[in-house]
Design goal:
CATH superfamily of the largest domain: Cysteine proteinases
Order of helices and strands: HEHEEEEEEEEHHHHEHEEEEE
Number of domains: 2
Largest sheet: 6 strands, antiparallel
Shape: elongated
Number of strands: 15
CATH architecture of the largest domain: Alpha-Beta Complex
Radius of gyration: 23 Å
Helix content: 10-25%
Strand content: 15-25%
Structural class: alpha+beta
Number of helices: 7
CATH topology of the largest domain: Cathepsin B, Chain A
């Protein structure tokens, strides 16, 4: 009887330690400690050694995709990690593990990216230099996405990042040319708004960087029309780049840049936003409303 009592007391001590972290956060990652079967059912990735107090079939499940009722894509995260819109009922675990439509504050031991995409170049990234098909000839010069299609490349990235109907930059270029929106020197703000509407997205132009940051926090994309400037060298003339995802570091608002110019390294790179903090705002083209919020 004494042996059984000791055994029971031992089990009562051990069992809470075994189950304490189920549905809890992983060590060094942004995922959740759940069964490997459940992780597989939700399409997540399993990582060992991140839930040390749990049984062998309980592991860290991270990078779990989720979909809002309106079709927007996100990633499952704990509420305090999500800087975007939080949607319940789409993810495993408890009520505080939600579908995050927007950027996620990543664990210092995990990925350092501030948006829901993973890796250096997301699947929707477009290097305009790889798109050399001639779309039209103007003044004897062959025009292509590679030569002057940074605007449609950025718009195509935005459509892909927001998980709308995927479209190639060549398709957007042809549509713009046939609609008399292209005359050899790239696309205007109004042209990109027109083309975006045809493919199910709204592009609204603003100069207000607070609106830009709020849009990125909520999971929207931003097309930025840049001009020559001294620090980042996005362009020597005029250029469009795509912003998607954001992160605050020591009170500084920073944004992730996806430059369709494949000749530099500004792909999935984090830069300050505001001009007062040495940010990319100082690279504005200056033609009025150079930030195009895409939703």
């Amino acid at each position: 009887m004494n042996f059984n009592l000791k055994l029971i007391l031992t089990l009562l001590v051990i069992i809470p330690n075994i189950i304490a972290d189920v549905n809890g956060g992983c060590s060094g990652r942004n995922g959740i400690c759940i069964s490997t079967d459940k992780c597989s059912n939700y399409g997540g990735e399993t990582f060992s050694g991140k839930c040390p107090s749990d049984p062998n079939d309980i592991k860290c499940c991270d990078n779990i995709p989720c979909t809002a009722d309106d079709g927007r894509k996100g990633t499952c995260a704990f509420s305090d990690q999500c800087n975007g819109e939080k949607i319940s009922g789409k993810c495993p675990g408890g009520s505080d593990f939600k579908c995050c439509i927007g950027n996620i504050n990543k664990s210092s031991s995990g990925s350092s990216k501030g948006s829901t995409h993973k890796g250096g170049k997301p699947s929707w990234y477009i290097n305009q230099g790889e798109h050399r098909e001639t779309i039209c000839t103007i003044g004897g010069e062959r025009k292509s996405v590679a030569s002057s299609g940074c605007g449609v490349a950025s718009l195509a990235m935005a459509i892909g990042a927001l998980n709308k109907n995927k479209v190639t930059p060549e398709t957007l270029f042809r549509e713009g040319y046939k609609s008399n929106l292209y005359h050899g020197d790239g696309f205007s703000h109004a042209s990109l708004t027109f083309l975006g509407k045809k493919h199910g997205v709204s592009v609204k132009w603003t100069d207000n960087v607070s609106n830009v940051y709020s849009a990125l926090e909520s999971g929207k994309g931003v097309i930025f029309h840049v001009g020559p400037e001294s620090k980042y060298h996005f362009t020597k003339h005029g250029h469009y780049i795509f912003l998607f995802g954001c992160k605050k570091e020591n009170g500084v608002e920073k944004v992730y840049v996806f430059d369709p110019n494949g000749h530099n390294n500004y792909v999935n790179k984090l830069f300050p936003l505001r001009k007062s903090q040495g940010g990319i705002e100082k690279a504005k083209r200056g033609q009025g409303g150079d930030f195009g919020i895409v939703s």
